[in-house]
Every structure is written in C-alpha cells, then in structure tokens.
Task: inverse folding
C-alpha cells in the first residue's frame, strides 16, 4: 500500500530520510546519556571511596575519644581517692 500524504508523493525518499535523521538523533541522544551516566557512575565511585575514608577516620577518632574518656575517668577517680585520703588524715 502506498502512502497518500502530500510530502511522500512529491519525494518518495523524504519519509525515509526523515526517519533516518530521527534515528540518528535518537542514537546521538542515547550516546550522550550513556556518557553522562558513565560520568555519574565514576563520580559515585569517587564519593564512595571518600565516604569509606571518612568513616574509617571517624571510627579512629571515636576510639581515641573513648580512650581519652577512660583515662580522664581514671584520673578523676585517683583525685577523689586522694581527697578521701587527705580528709581521713585530718
């Protein structure tokens, strides 16, 4: 069955050329989107690495803080013990 539209009757190859241009436009858009997706994927991997490093650093600082608190508690207990000893000597 032949197409009866006016544009096709004048130029039989026009419809094919138009659809080919559209296909190429879509192919270009898909390629652009794939490149953008790859860039986002690389940025995500970079952010994951930074997050991992930050989490490790935070864990180390939390451990250090816990140790400092335990040392402070020990010193306070020693000071309290010395106060009790001094009070009992009076």
Result:
């Amino acid at each position: 069955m032949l197409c009866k539209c006016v544009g096709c009757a004048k130029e039989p190859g026009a419809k094919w050329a138009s659809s080919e241009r559209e296909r190429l436009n879509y192919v270009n858009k898909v390629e652009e989107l794939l490149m953008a997706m790859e860039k986002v994927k690389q940025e995500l991997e970079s952010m994951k690495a930074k997050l991992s490093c930050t989490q490790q650093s935070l864990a180390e600082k939390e451990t250090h803080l816990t140790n400092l608190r335990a040392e402070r508690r020990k010193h306070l207990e020693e000071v309290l013990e010395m106060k009790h000893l001094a009070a009992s000597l009076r």
Remarks:
- The helical segments are 6-10, 14-89.
